[in-house]
Sequence to fold (392 residues):
Amino acid sequence: MIGFWVMLVAQGAGWTAEVSPCDTLWTPLAADSLIAPIVSRVDTDSVRGVIARLQAFGTRYYTTDSLQAARAWIFQEFSRRGADTVFEQTFTYGGYPQANIIARKTGRCPDSLRIVIGAHYDATASGNPQQNAPGADDNASGMGLLLEVFRVLQDVPLKRTVEFVAFAAEEPGLIGSGVYAQQAAASGDTFLFYLNADMIGGDADYVNDTVVVEVDQGNQQVGNDAPSQAFGDSLARAYALYTPLGVSFGPIYGSDYMPLEAEGYVTFGVFEYHWNSTYHSPDDVIDSMDVGYTTEIARGVAALVVALAGLDTTTTEVAEDPGGPHLRYAPVARRLVLSRPASIRLLDPLGRVRLVRSGVRRLDLPRNLRPGIYVVEMANGLQRRRVRIWVP
Ligand SMILES: [Zn+2]
Fold:
């Protein structure tokens, strides 16, 4: 047995994580025991909270002060949920200042194409600025998906960067997404795809058990149709694997993917199967829609984003002493196996010591450990090693 360990130690760091975490970026969508617990953290009450808060601003018509209040809240909410990057893309429309709000979760592979998902936050009641437009289904529901997927991914290490865009001024004519698309094209920006969420609340008077996956069929560019269908198929697979929802395919039309499609980007979207009967009226309030349905739609999107951004489950050396103990880590079993006995300290994402053991070769992490990124410090005499692990 000693010979076995000598061989492993001789391989040095290769035993922990020599393969670049960016090498395999395309994960085929299959049932994944690491994705399931992430999906299950998409929470109905959390989604409801976003929709209710946006509705409570009153109208979010693009000309109004209450729209500006919602804009400020969304920016703060991305920050409060842990965004490492959040900024506004500002422009003026009809003499009124507007802003797309963009938050990023930075992945470990900066050269890989990022994933972009988005939803508009403005609302309208038949284009009448004097009428209240609470816009719960259209489109606080999409914003509920956006902010909730952002929240649950915070503790999840991903390879690709994921960008979340809250679009302004969709209702007067896809204005915010037009600005985003033009600037992206003008600067030669590329990304894997844009996934749109607009009107995913369903209708409270129906059983909402089917999601429409919208794919690009023709429109301004034809070269992006096939990849749109391929990503749509992956999303359909995510719904089958991780939610009770059935899937119906439909075309993209009339929302924020269109300006991006016109620039040649690959786009697709999610949409409610039963069109909410309060569409573009003062009655578009949370009670007219089905928050549980919105939550399931968000779960499928969360699963797809994790699968295609790629989970970064490789353990990573953060400080290396060539003579220090080596670590093998199995995330699902939450088990650490060391190359030789050592003292272990486990530090949580805030740097607090959560666990101390001495003289261990194998350690099962406690089940009640909060998901996130931890650092394992191993010490054997004067030899030390620090390794970053992810607890799902
Ligand atoms: Zn809309």
Summary: Confidence is low (pLDDT under 50) at residues 1-19. The two ends are 31 Å apart (CA to CA).
